[in-house]
Amino acid sequence: MNRDKLRTVAFEGIKKFLAKLHIYKSMGDFDAAKKMFDGYSVVDEEMTRVRDIVIANKVPRRINLQPNVFLDSTHPEPYYKGYDETFEGVV
């Protein structure tokens, strides 16, 4: 894949695709929109291989944690509390 073309050629292609789909939606032409969308969403053998590659290289989902700063009577100053970067830490 040529990444230099993402902001030019790929952007224009996606823009045209979404505009065409929007026109079908605005006109209420469900049959034409479904035919067009189904044509692009067919999963052939090549896309199955691409999917297998993506799954093999999948990285774990990032966990976003937000630490807290507490004020209470047991500590003379505010204190910072961080959490473990696990699902238990999120909860």
Descriptive account of the structure:
The mean pLDDT is 88. 54% of the residues lie in helices and 7% in strands. The protein is elongated, with a radius of gyration of 24 Å. The protein has helices at residues 6-27, 30-40, 45-56, 87-90, and strands at residues 68-70, 79-81. A hairpin with an 8-residue loop joins strand 1 (68-70) and strand 2. The longest helix has 22 residues, at 6-27. Helix 1 runs antiparallel to helix 2 (30-40). The chain has a two-stranded antiparallel sheet. The two termini are 40 Å apart. The protein has a domain at 3-56.
List keywords for this structure.
91 residues; two-stranded antiparallel ribbon; single chain
Number of helical stretches of at least 4 residues: 4
Instruction: Note the overall shape.
Output: elongated
Biggest sheet: strands, sense, closure? 2 strands, antiparallel
Structural class: mainly alpha
pLDDT averaged over residues: 88
Strand order of the largest sheet: 1-2
